[in-house]
Amino acid sequence: MKLIALYAVAAPLLAQQPQDTAFARLVREYTTDPRFLPASVATLPLSATIPSPQRYFGTIAGAPGVMHHSAEVYGYFRALARATPRVRVETVGKSEEGRDIILVEIADSATLQHADGYRAALARLADPRTVPAAARDSVVAAAKPVYYLNGALHSAEMGSPEMLMELAYRLAAGDDPALAAIRDHVITLINPVSEPDGRDRQVDWYLHYTKPRATADDGFPRSSPFWGDYAFHDNNRDGLQISQALTRAIFKVYYDWHPVVMHDLHESVPLLYVSTGTGPYNEHNDPIAISEWQLLANNDITALDAQGLPGVWTWAFFDGWWPGYAMWVANNHNAIGRFYETMGNAGANTYVQDLSDDSYAGDPVTSRQWYRPWPPTKKVRWSARDNVNYQEAGVLASLTFTAQNATVLLRNFWQKGVNSIARGRSEKPYGYVIPALARQRDPARAAYLVNQLERQRVEIYRRSSGDSAGDFVVPRDQPYGDLVVNLLGTQHFPQTAKYPPYDDIAWTLGYLYGVTVTAVNDTSVLRRDGLDRVTDTVAAAGAVTGGGPVYLLAYRAQGNVLPAFYRLAKSEPKARAFAAESAFVVGKDTFPAGSVIVEGTSAAGAADFASRYALPLVGVAAAPTVARHALDLPRVAIYHSWYSTQDAGWARYTFEQYGVPYASIDKDDLRRGALRQRFDVILVPSFGGSAAQMIHGIDTRWSPLAYQKTQDTPNLGTPFSSPDITGGPGFAGMAELQKFVQQGGTLVTLGAATTLAAETGIARQLTPLRAATLFHPGSIVRARARQRRSPILYGYPDVTTIFRGNGPLFQVGDRDSALVVLQYGATRKVERDEGPMLGIPDTAAAPASHTDTARARPSAGDSSYVVSGMVRGESEIVGQGAIFDVPVAAGRVVAFSFDPLHRFLNHHEFALVWNVLLNWNDR
Hints:
923 residues, alpha+beta, Aminopeptidase, Alpha-Beta Plaits, 8-stranded mixed sheet, 27 helices, 17% strand
């Protein structure tokens, strides 16, 4: 194996082809330091027939002040494809706003003509069951590695589309041996703008607002408030949900091409970070993959060091644990997922960046370390062209390495599939069983889990007969068997990990979706007898049984109930729904508290309700005699700030996916007042910052700062617009929000947004709780009902699971303990026993501990707090409030100290929010 890329040692070969002298002059001019200009990108081949970026745009990539919209970038790539058979362009998706997501394919013309054959060979290597060991080398010889490059995922990281245009030209037009070897031995795929909606918003923002700014650290917001319509930075945390258009496009590329390497281009740290990570690495990554991360990183660092580039490093940024990043579609499917981080300026200005305080894994970024042999200086003058140089030189080193080591990488790709199958046959659990939909608390959610596994290309089987007919069986002895246990098993992040995790550390899908999944430690699960392969989308069924004009639904927190009632209200305006306040029995059926009684609907309306939403109804002659209250559908508003739009985006996405109507409001709506006349419920999704920042928003020294569609900014103003996004609701807006609650409205705060209610006095009983030793990265934990009769908990068992990450905690005083609806931990909280009391001689003599949970009685079954993940200092949170229901005059505040709408992942918790909405005026 050749560990040093050709570009590190053979730069003089570039002189063999005529070079673009204008480019050479401009690249030297735009590069701020000669040490930032590696030989591999210092010149550019000249072609009479293929347009370079300079010929097409009039400027070279990385020119000062120049950034291109997605249509301009696409126009260039399509011009390349028209000019040479070495380049092809196809559309692989559409963004939420209808923009193309394209894929550029680059190789020698003969390779592209036979691309389908190479794709077929890679597909065979991806499933080693089709390639026995004796045939491996012949299939490898018929294949070529595919190397995928992903640009502009995070919209404020703007350099990669510019660089990728120059790289594509270089690969298409260059005839020197280094470039020819890449074309001959590698198929390079480029997605230059993976989030085109965000790219166009950000280019408008840069050209209109930040381009005139002379310094990088003046405090002006460098990013458009929105990237995608829903996801902001989390568009790189969507690999488990596959919910956003850009994620679906990336997954399509992987399944169509099976790239051996998928490489994401980011900008956040100086000067070039090449991903490996501090660990702990995901325990279900194949050891080969982990070694390949190191191999590619060391190759790139060595190649760039050899060309004299300072500030290239690895290891100390990122960990390698969370499997939901975009490029982890590769790691999860036996390929190599990796990324770069370069230093970007959120545009094409040249700035002096002060790195004096930048530290990673405890070491200053300017310090010399084993993983950073040549650190940058404490201050660096950095240009857009510097960024292009580093990215492009690194990618060329990676492509050269792939070309030189194609056979080894292809064999490894096959071997990782072999290893996955072997582990499935030799390691417990050997597979998982998802009981039949009819035996699940929420059949529709169980079907969703099965379909999500299918979207990950996991093989699933269904029992066709016997007592367990309808059960889904997921054996591990399959090419993606490691992914099976990664998604369905529990996570055990090490308590002793030296460095904090980079992201969430638990994602067990059965818990997140509220679906029963059973691990099987018997090898019989590997036998396919009596099993049918699931090949189509699975759908849960619902029907009406019994007869009579009144319909009953056994409520078990099914996620479809709220949207079903909104539809019923439109189609059957005379229908009325009620929640039973206690359990009741009809015939042989027991209906739990919260079960629904529907009156006044037609038989056709009931049938549509049941079948469309997989909610079985029982028709009876008369309503049962049970205490009940009406389920009044509320008028809902979702609040969003302008400085932190992401969690509100996930909330909006969740509401829209479930068909729950809402209005979106911002600071100006709060100031305008008359909130109670317009809304019954205002939901404030989690967003960060202190109470002061939540109230005052973006600094008004930048006012007016419009986010609107104009002739100069045609891509701004969506999904929402404002003539001035500075400032927050202010004290006047807070007063109007308080008035809304006092007049009978329900305010719902999620996660960190509960700060807004607790620290402004809207919910005066609620105050922050300091937990000095608690470290709670995103994990799945147990929670217990404290107010079992609360409608917020309808459909949930006494002890359930929730997902919680780091964030603020809140509390109420002892006399307000009844306001705690749900607590963290499965132990029962008991009041403090203060010992004997004068005047009551029979009180207990032994004093209790002063901690509320010291004498807590363990619940039945497993009472441990952490279900999946890791928490340190859990004694500080067990017994504390997770959900509070605080009365305020005629209204109420329902405050969550976790986010039940986290990234469209924790579907099991959505019904907690739906319960609040269904019972917004009942406690």
